[in-house]
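S.,

Sequence below, as promised.
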Amino acid sequence: MHTLSLRNHRAFVETPSGFVHVRSAGNGMPIILLHWTPASSRQYTPTLSCLANLGYAAYAPDHLGYGQSDPRPKPWAIGDYADNIASVMDGLNIEGAVVLGGHLSAEIAVELSLSHPQKVSRLILDGSPVWDRTFREEVLATARQPTPDWKEDGSHIAWVWERSLWLQRMWDSSFVLDEGGADFLRNAVIDSMLAQQSDDSADALRNYNMEEALQKVTVPTLALTAETDPLNDCHRKVLRLADGAVGYTFVGRHPHHHPDKTADYVSVLHRFISGEMDDFETIETAKKTEAESYG
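The prediction came back faster than expected:
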């Protein structure tokens, strides 16, 4: 296993499908952080440092086609993403790790645990698209927007800004374009401009049966959500489908959109990995809480 310092590092790992850009920090138990899409490993910059301070070796790769990784082959399915992350882990000499994935990457993390079970010791699913087929098609029809042709006057770049703003407000309904919001949006635009492919993996998301996959999961699983997360209504489904899964709901905005919550976010990850889960949700406590809210 690579020896890392507490300072964040960046490197490229060669895989059969192309070079993958990886951010990393720390020494100790490895944890792989898979970013939401369309975004990049930049999402985990503060998380990496915080995990490193707790004694983890944390790695955040850019999926192929995003951030500074190479373009990905076409067509590209969830299984292909999972195989590629397994290759990244091989390139980093990581035999097994805690694997965290959010939104589309929750599916990638689940598939990695099923197709490469020796690679995943624990799963952390940070928002999971457990949708029926009809709703999945409706969501993707709205989310997938064609990329405009390039214009000499640069007017096509406005689409990148508008698309990034739409995504940010979809992920965080309370998003405000103040000074802090401008920093988030600037990074989102940079990531979008860097990405060689901007189709946001809609086809991969459309064709993966997350409900069926969750029922096959055998490793300890933590389901995360936030009150404002657009996938919050899927949270109980994950607890029900993944045998023995526990959950945690962040109050208000997701920590990814609220940097001063990073320590709280990492604390939850650490407690799950350490087995300190007394206050975590189960499907039984989730049902009780819901019943009380309607009582």
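The first strand starts at residue 9 and ends at 15.

Coffee later?
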